[in-house]
Amino acid sequence: MSWFSEYGPILAMQGFNALSLFCVLLLMALGLAIIFGQMGVINMAHGEFLTIGAYTTYLFSTLTQTYAPALMPGYFLVAIVGAFIFAFGFGYLLEWALIRHLYRRPLDTLLATWGVSLGMQQLFRSTFGAREVSATLPDWLMGSWQPVEGVDIPLNGMFVMALTALLTLTLFLLLFRSGWGLEVRSTVQNRMMAGAVGINTKRVDRMTFALGCGIAGVAGAAFTTIGSTGPTSGSLYIVDTFLTVVFGGAASLFGTIASAFAIAQTQANLEFFLNGSMAKVLTLSAVVIFLMVRPQGLFAIKVRR
Amino acid sequence: MSDRRKPAIPSPTRRRMLQGIAALPVLSLSGLSYANTPPTSKVNTTGLAVTDKEVIVGQLHSATGTMAISETGSIQAEQLAIEQINAMGGILGRKIKIIQEDGASDWPTFAEKAKKLLVNDKVPAVFGCWTSASRKAVLPVFEKENGLLYYPTFYEGLEQSKNVIYTGQEATQQIIAGLDWIAQEKKAETFYLIGSDYIWPRTSNKIARKHIENVLKKKVVGEEYYPLGHTQFGSLINKIKLRKPDVVYAIVVGGSNVAFYKQLKAAGITAEKQTLLTISVTEDELLGIGGENAEGFYAAMKYFQSLDNPNNKKFVEAFKKKYGPKSVIGDVTQAAYLGPWLWKAAVEKAGSFDVDKVVAASPGIELKTAPEGYVKVHENHHLWSKTRIGQIQKDGQFKVLYESGLIEPDPFPKGYQ
What we know:
- Chain A is an all-alpha fold and about 300 residues long.
- Chain A has helices at about 1-40, 45-65, 70-95, 105-130, 155-175, 180-190, 190-195, 200-225, 235-250, 255-275, 275-295; strands spanning about 145, 155.
- Chain A has a two-stranded antiparallel ribbon with strand order 1-2.
- Chain B contains 14 helices and 15 strands.
- In chain B, helix 3 links the parallel strand 1 and strand 2.
- With about 425 residues, chain B is of the alpha/beta class.
- Chains A and B meet through helix 1, helix 5, helix 9, helix 10 and helix 11 of A and helix 3, strand 7, helix 8, helix 9 and helix 10 of B.
């Protein structure tokens, strides 16, 4: 049993690590799963909505520290809500100003949103400075939990997990159990018909896009606990985000979840037994080969063509 | 293209008027200023951008794009140095004017802008570049057009050019002194090498491994690289816990850097339990990482903002006065600050702005007023400098624990390749 007492803790932590990576991937991908998956908009500026969330957290942190240091333990939860509101609002504006004119031209959307992404990066740089900043995190988010000797479970990882579970559940209820969700799904399946039965498809589009952006904002706020906050921080996540959504099969929320899980397990375990760069190469190759065989991804909604 | 180039010669009437105005102070001061202001025909025989009144230099950094994060400090430090030199009367009686070009974090753009500065603007010196990739991109341009580049970043070495003066440390200066210190001070036997996956960390770790194994006779228990921009270090952290190295030697850069230290802390790997030495964290990086997330770890650099000497006190004060009390100064920022001063000293020694003469005058140039202390230009165009060990403090500053002697730069180290 001495073998187990030595490797057991590592195994447990590695298991948690893979789960934690799964939640990070899922959290990044949820917003895009709606925007790209449901609406078919290739939003290259998705990473910048993460950045909006991260900077909002930084702003809240600085303001709280300056004006009400006693409230530090609780500010983070408020910052998450703030991040959602800011990102949602900006997404709403972006849809109204740009995206709605491009629904029939997906490739132009790609270019236009890429331009928006560059513009937003430079805007962050001019507003907050080129250097990275660091939001001061409340103490209850830092450090680790030791259930037994030798096992350290990161608290921020647990927090991200809980947040991901909560968001996924909320999103699921919204999409599949609410009247609004019904409108969204019918608009996705058949826009003309949805319009004909009296659904205001334009309003649905705007709300859906904004909701996706808002979720990205929440993810950005959560990521301040594990990553960097700088003008280009969002772009660190964009490739993994698209990878997760495409691999899962666009238009399928369940696919995104399964895909995040598969990618996270592969990546985390390869990293452990090989190394970081090799793990990335092998994971990407596996996804590419899978998509060659099955271009529609893991799960696809059956559509009559 | 034509709209970018300003006409070199003003219209005849304007020119006559300008000459008239320019003649006034020259006449009244001619007796005094001749000694300090040798005629342009003498100090500029190769058609550079030098007039009787001013000399135009180039500045080539990324003000936009991903690298702006790192290069902003260098831009500010070079401009501060030039401002101070101008306040002292300039170089050979000429005020320095800057043409600032933006490399935009894109290597071909760097090459294109370098060519513009050397061919169109004919600047006698350029202060610029940050990443090795951008330096490699402009190097052929500087060698072909015979320009002069002052390069501020600590880098992997294995390079030496007639047309570049390297004001940061090359790899052996930074690495060897740091490893010697940690091996002795912490009685370290095992090392785990970590880096972002590109040329600088890989070359540096290669040198580190050779030194650990061949000179120190210790063991390297792991060497790993993660892609640039990687943000999930959970697996790596578990591997560190499994192998329990005495020292983690980390060369992680950019956004990954922040993620790496935040996750180390979250996983319970703090300075009390694990010794960590890095050569990629300066005061600049700590702004993003947050001092509390890396408190107690060590960094090997030639400069820390907290260095206690009169030169540095003056420098920090001037920097904060110009760029705000919250600004911080990292190793590269200080190295960038040296560039204009080294150039001034070389030009004055050569008595000319001509690149060949300045290059010939450069080896042996000493700077006693450098914030890092004393530096001297070596024949191989790198600087003699000291290496220090700093311990990261909660407020994002370093506590200097150790200072080496003056180390000779050795960009092509024997036995380390």
